[in-house]
Design brief:
By secondary structure, this protein is an alpha/beta fold. It is built from 6 helices and 14 strands. The protein is 22% helix and 27% strand. It has a 7-stranded mixed β-sheet. The termini are far apart.
Length: 265
């Protein structure tokens, strides 16, 4: 039996840098407004704290939590209450090392985590976080999903969709407005070259260094077209991923079958 379509909601949060409770309260309010038919709500990178620009490791440590901490518990409660999965990233502490950790929380309470691979050296992320080595992959409601975090989207080999292993790529970010043209171009390119949907969420607000974020968020189809529907002033972005259209395009234009093999080291 064919899988059904997947209904996506993107939430380009106006993040309050360093104010975890304010961000969790903001998410709780927004979750109550999400359309009840939504299958998956996607949040920006480090949604609960903002990206730690210009901070050293010990300054960031108080913002970090374990996978069993209050932020993940809160996400589980929201997912169960509203019956949709929630994806994003948060600052995690594992054995004293800090990570920019992707999460995928299902309504059932099932959880999947992976850590950001490409650390943004320009902002000193490599001095705060340890890198990850696995790309988050999950099967949810009949769809194969993969997930990357912000700077990862610049690296096409890491995002490569080998033998159609994923149907949609989730990309979460704190990507400043000054470079937003690159963000949008890279997202469309990843969708085209991988013959998959790309569901991308950026944040809004201003960080402590004065960089502005305009919440550029969209769902791109397998041809690189923005298929999002935006609701203002609600601030939520919706899209429906079509299984039939994706399968039909891959059958008619099977570029995936001619892709070069590669091996990451």
């Amino acid at each position: 039996m064919k899988s059904s379509d997947l209904k996506i909601c993107l939430f380009p949060m106006n993040i309050k840098w360093g104010d975890k409770q304010a961000n969790l309260d903001c998410l709780k309010e927004a979750a109550a407004r999400v359309h009840p038919e939504t299958d998956l709500l996607i949040l920006p990178e480090t949604f609960s704290t903002g990206f730690p620009v210009g901070m050293d490791k010990e300054e960031v440590r108080p913002l970090a939590e374990r996978n069993t901490g209050p932020t993940v518990d809160f996400l589980k409660e929201l997912a169960a209450k509203h019956k949709f999965a929630i994806a994003g990233s948060f600052i995690a502490d594992s054995g004293g090392s800090l990570y920019n950790r992707a999460f995928f929380i299902e309504p059932s309470g099932d959880e999947t985590f992976e850590d950001k691979r490409h650390l943004f050296t320009m902002a000193g992320e490599n001095k705060v976080f340890s890198r990850g080595y696995g790309r988050l992959k999950i099967r949810y409601r009949g769809w194969n999903l993969a997930m990357v975090i912000c700077y990862d989207i610049r690296f096409p080999v890491w995002c490569r969709n080998v033998h159609n292993e994923y149907d949609a790529l989730i990309a979460v970010a704190n990507w400043p407005e000054v470079r937003v043209n690159a963000w949008e171009a890279l997202l469309a390119a990843r969708a085209i070259e991988n013959e998959a949907y790309v569901c991308a969420v950026d944040c809004k607000g201003a960080d402590p260094k004065g960089y502005d974020y305009n919440g550029s968020s969209a769902v791109y189809d397998f041809k690189g077209r923005d298929v999002s529907v935006r609701f203002e002033p609600d601030g939520l972005v919706y899209a429906t991923l079509s299984r039939d259209r994706l399968d039909s395009f891959r059958e008619k234009f099977p570029a995936w079958a001619d892709a070069d093999p590669f091996k990451l080291i």
